[in-house]
Amino acid sequence: MALVINDRVKVNSTTTGTGAITLGATQTGFESFAAGIGNNNTTYYCIFNQGTSEFEVGLGTLNASSSTLTRTTVLTSSNSDSTVDFSSGTKDVFCTLPASKAVYLDANGDAVGVQGGNIETLGNTFTNWNNVSSDATTTLATTSNAFLAGLITVSSNATWTVGGNGTLTII
């Protein structure tokens, strides 16, 4: 089971109550949870009951056939950030990246949304990753080099290598 986030994953549902959401027809121009997220994986989701104020954003787990989404952890909702007891009606159910889980750069190029100015991912904490100059040597260990490559800026004459064990070295 992996955490998977994908663009343009959106279906309908008519599920009511607080339990798992039965995923319905894929909306036109989008892909299904089976195609975009995959069986038994987890994803961040949003459920919105059309024509009402009922909504929920959280972390959910797909079943083995991607036909239901279990609402594992509610992050925000119209029910004081608790599980929503959805009333009847058609719901939009889609994959999202909640603002509380996003890491992005502010106007100064500094990372926002990281704890204590450090990047925390995959059980590792990365420090001293910003503003690396050509005369500095910084080694960061990770299993997600693609994640780090988008966040680290090095000067034009610096070099960096990724070792077989996932260690990123900037020289």
**How would you characterize the largest beta sheet?**
6 strands, antiparallel
**Radius of gyration, rounded?**
20 Å
Helix content: under 10%
Low-confidence region ranges = 120-150
Strand content: 25-35%
Q: Give the total of beta strands.
A: 13
Give the domain tally: 2
Average pLDDT, rounded to a whole number, is 79
Strands in their spatial order, largest beta sheet: 1-6-3-4-5-2
Shape: globular
Query: Element order, helices and strands?
Result: EEHEEEEEEEEEHEE
Note down, in words, how this protein is organized:
By secondary structure, this protein is mostly beta strands. It folds into 2 domains: 10-98; 103-163, no CATH class. The chain is built from 2 helices and 13 strands. The strands form 4 sheets. It has a 6-stranded antiparallel beta sheet, with no helix packed on it. A hairpin with a 2-residue loop joins strand 9 (119-121) and strand 10 (124-126). The protein is globular. The two termini are 36 Å apart.
Keywords:
171 residues; mainly beta; 2 helices; single chain; 13 strands; three-stranded antiparallel beta sheet
Q: Can you lay out the helices and strands and say which pair or pack?
A:
Elements lengths: L9 E4 L7 E2 L10 H4 L5 E8 L5 E8 L5 E10 L13 E5 L8 E2 L5 E2 L6 E3 L2 E3 L11 E4 L3 H5 L10 E3 L4 E4 L1
Antiparallel strand pairs: 1-6, 2-5, 3-4, 3-6, 4-5, 7-8, 9-10, 11-13, 12-13
Summed up, what is this model?
The protein is mainly beta and 171 residues long. The chain is 5% helix and 34% strand.
